[in-house]
Structure formats: C-alpha cells, structure tokens
Design brief:
- By secondary structure, the protein is of the alpha+beta class.
- The chain has 16 helices and 14 strands.
- Strands 6, 7, 8, 10 and 12 form a 5-stranded antiparallel β-sheet that branches. A 4-stranded antiparallel β-sheet has the order 11-9-13-14, with no helix packed on it. A 3-stranded antiparallel β-sheet has the order 1-2-3, with no helix packed on it.
- Helix 1 crosses helix 4, helix 4 packs antiparallel against helix 6 and helix 4 crosses helix 8.
- About 4% of the residues have low confidence.
- Keywords: 4Fe-4S, Electron transport, Iron, Iron-sulfur, Membrane, Metal-binding, Transmembrane, Transmembrane helix, Transport.
Length: 480
C-alpha cells in the first residue's frame, strides 16, 4: 500500500532543505527532447493558437447582433459561443459547465493523474514559453546555474534585460488577448494600439500583464505546488490504478554507475539499472525526485520519462525505468507479478458516463430551448387585497423575454380561474424589442376565497408560439 508524499522535499543537490533563515535556490530545469516533450510542445502551440486566434473568428448571427464567435458582452449581459447564446437568467448553464469541467478533471485524474496540469494548464503553458525564452537568451541549465553566482557584466546585464523585456511583451500579449473576449476584438485591438481604449481596458491589460509576468516568470513551481488547490485534492482522489509517472524501483535499485553495476553483476551481486545520473531530477519543472515515490507535486508532464529513456538508450538498457505506469503495477513488479493495465474499470467508466450524460443533458436543453420566455413573480407585500365589492386582487410582476433578432408582439392571457386581468398601462398585444426583456405589472381580480393555481401564457401574435409560467392566486386570509 502506497502513501502519497506531501512533504515535497526537492532532492537535487542545490535544493536540499535549507538551514533556518536561508532561502533555497529556485528550480532551474534542464531542456530535454523526447516524445513527451514533443507532446508538450504540440499542446503549447495548440493552446496558444486557440487563445490568441479565437477572439478574431467571426460568426454571423443576423442583423444588429455581434459577429464575434466567442464574446462575453458585459454591456448587453450575454455570453456568445458560436451558435450558443447564454442570457444572465440562464446562469445554470454556466453552473453545469463548471460541474462538467470538474467531472472531466476527476475522470482525467482517474485515468492519468495530473495530466491536465502537465500539458494544458495555463500556468504550465506560459511557464514553458517563458522557459523557452530563458534558454534561448541565457543558455541551458548548466549555463544558467553558472551565471546565477557570477559577477554582473555588461553582456550579462543585456541578457537579463532582453529576457525580462521579452517576458513582459509575452505577458502584455496575454493580457491584451484576454480583454478582446469582452468586446469586438479588431476594434478594441486598434483602440489599444492607438491609445483610444477605455481606462478599464488598459487597467485589465496591466493587471493581467503583471500576473502573467509574475506567475510564469518567478512563481513557477510554487503555483503548481502551493497556490493551486488541485495538488491538495490529489491526496484525496489519488488512484493507484491511474497511469501516473512512476519509477520502477524493483528494476532500478540498487543504484550505481554503469561500471559499478557491471562489476556487481559479474560477481553475482544485485545491481539496478538506475545509474543515479540525476537527469530525471534536473529536467523536472517542479524540482522533485520521482524515484522517491508518488509525490503530490508531480504534474505528470513526463519530462523525466524522456530524460531517463535517453540515458537508458545510450547505455543499451531497456527503456521505461521511469514511465507512465500504475502504482499498483509497481507493487506487482516488486512481487514479481505480471502487470495489469486497468484503465477501463468501474471508476473510469462511471465517471465517463457521468461526463457523457451531463454533456448530453446540457446539449438537449440548449437544443430545445426557445427564443421566448415568460417569468412571473407574485407580489409579496401585500400578497392580496380585498376590494370594496368583496372580490380579491393579486398583483404580479411578469417579465417577457424576446431572444429573437426582431421585435415581437405577445398576447398575454391568464387561465385557471374566472376573473378580470389587467395589464397596467397596456391594451392589446405587448411589444418586446429584439434581444430584450420587458417587465409588466399585471393585476388579477377574482371572486374566490381559496388558493388556486393560475397559468400565465404569452402567445406570439405572428407565429402563434406559446410560452407559459405557473403561479398561484392567493385570497386575503391566505386560503387553504
């Protein structure tokens, strides 16, 4: 039985636990090549392309409607995502989307641990981009470590200045792209460049520039380890059958150099494949040693797999000493049992079905919703009034929603009781402007002394489509 290490003690030589009052040096990861590094580059390019291009994609919604494919229109209170339009009253769709995202993350965790963190998390994407810039300008890990304690020369000052200037440009592009999702992107981009944008737009660009620059440039592994809540959840939902990055210690131990291992094997003594080259630690963006066992800080990026496979290939030893493997198989390997891949199991199937079901329900709900709606709110104080002729009057606030692209007229009716219906200030059909709402004051008078359900219906005069909402008619004494 394994326990998930939450101590997070970096094992590399320059990151051993510092003495009191001494701050440990920052993690300086080394570059690496391999299939997982290529997958990370592909994910980085795809995520950045989606983020920067999406605001400029057009989508025709008809006259007087915004043509930006993805737009959060704060002024009009609308969220547009291609053919989907979400109104403020439909916030339950956003709630459903958040629940769906949570289910997907839990399902991914059951399949492959923190694979989201290692490949698609914005913090990971921009950190990788910042690290790429740092390597281009200052060199790889060995060169950067040498320069950390070296004297400041004009060349070194230029390198530092160029690196931070490039980081700031990327961060500014990040903040600038984010605000493009809130208004027409080409127009706002031109306004930002020419100094014509609002102070609010520039303020948000500055805020997001600062956060991106700080988090991706200086707080890299601290964000993934301490600021993000997901590592803490790992301790509760960690699954030993998930394909996480693990070290096959039954094959790698005892560690030793290639020469020493050959001598031990020649004498009949046990010798492992791990040569303790520390490459797996050097390439880790978090600074952990995966050979110490499961660690909550591991983001499952697979870079240590690439590094170890490269060393094993050079030594003509089998790859996979560090690999995406279930911890349960590590324990089976220690017992000389055959590994079993159990990606498809009740937990993953159940979570997958939950994701599919919720996605289907939200899709059906979106497909079946109409372009008109009516809501009714009963008066609270007073709930009912006794008139001089003995009849009872109830008041209601009725709101009509017209989600179509043209003005519409509705005929309002109340069914469920015999009485007089009065729409204050209106006679005949009620007009509602395109893509707008209208609130009406409705008074219902009836000679009854008991509670009774009533139905408010709004009928489109032109198309005959009907929407309805139910409420109740309450007598003065509250009724039965």
């Amino acid at each position: 039985m394994a326990t998930l290490d939450i101590s997070f003690k970096p094992e590399r030589a320059h990151l051993r636990k510092p003495k009191r009052g001494v701050i440990a040096e920052k993690v300086v990861p080394q570059s690496v090549s391999g299939r997982y590094r290529r997958l990370k580059w592909a994910a980085l390019i795809a995520c950045l392309a989606l983020y920067y291009i999406l605001p400029f994609i057009r989508w025709d919604r008809g006259p007087s409607q915004p043509d930006q494919a993805v737009l959060l229109d704060v002024e009009r209170g609308r969220l547009y995502v291609f053919f989907i339009e979400i109104w403020p009253q439909e916030v339950y769709y956003l709630t459903g989307l958040l629940i769906l995202a949570t289910l997907v993350l839990i399902w991914l965790n059951a399949v492959a641990g923190r694979v989201w963190c290692g490949y698609f998390c914005p913090q990971t994407v921009w950190t990788d981009l910042f690290l790429l810039v740092e390597r281009w300008i200052e060199g790889d890990r060995r060169e950067r470590l040498k320069k950390q304690g070296a004297a400041l020369t004009p060349r070194r000052a230029c390198e530092i200045g160029l690196k931070h200037a490039t980081w700031l440009l990327i961060a500014m592009g990040t903040g600038g792209a984010f605000v493009l999702y809130f208004t027409d992107a080409p127009t706002l981009l031109a306004d930002l460049a020419l100094g014509r944008a609002s102070a609010v737009a520039y303020a948000w660009v500055a805020i997001l520039t600062g956060t991106t620059y700080t988090l991706a440039g200086f707080a890299r592994e601290q964000v993934c380890t301490w600021m993000c809540p997901w590592p803490r959840l790992q301790g509760a939902i960690w699954d030993p059958e998930a394909l996480t990055v693990n070290y096959r210690d039954y094959r790698g131990e005892p560690r030793g150099s290639a020469k020493k291992a050959a001598e031990l094997k020649a004498s009949g003594a046990p010798a492992g494949d791990c040569v303790d080259c520390m490459q797996c630690v050097n390439v880790c963006p978090i600074g952990i040693d995966i050979r110490e066992g499961p660690n909550f800080a591991c983001i499952n990026c697979g870079l240590c797999v690439d590094a170890c496979d490269s060393v094993m290939t050079k030594l003509s030893r089998p790859r996979g000493l560090i690999d995406y493997e279930a911890w349960a198989n590590i324990e089976r390997g220690r017992r000389n049992e055959a590994p079993r891949r159990r990606v498809i199991r009740p937990k993953t199937v159940g979570l997958g079905l939950a994701v599919v079901t919720l996605t289907g329900l939200m899709g059906v709900s979106l497909a079946l919703r109409g372009d008109a709606k009516i809501t009714v709110i009963h008066d609270r104080n007073p709930v009912a009034v006794r008139l001089s002729d003995g009849q009872t009057r109830n008041g209601y606030a009725v709101r009509l929603y017209n989600k179509a692209g043209q003005e519409r007229s509705f005929r309002l009716d109340v069914t469920g009781l015999q009485g007089l219906v009065e729409i204050v200030g209106e006679e005949g059909p009620v007009g509602v402007a395109s893509d707008a709402t209208r609130e009406l004051r409705v008074l219902v008078t009836a000679p009854i002394d008991e509670r009774q359900a009533v139905t408010f219906t709004a009928t489109d005069v032109e198309t005959g489509k009907v929407v309805s909402a139910q409420d109740v008619f309450i007598p003065v004494d509250g009724g039965r």
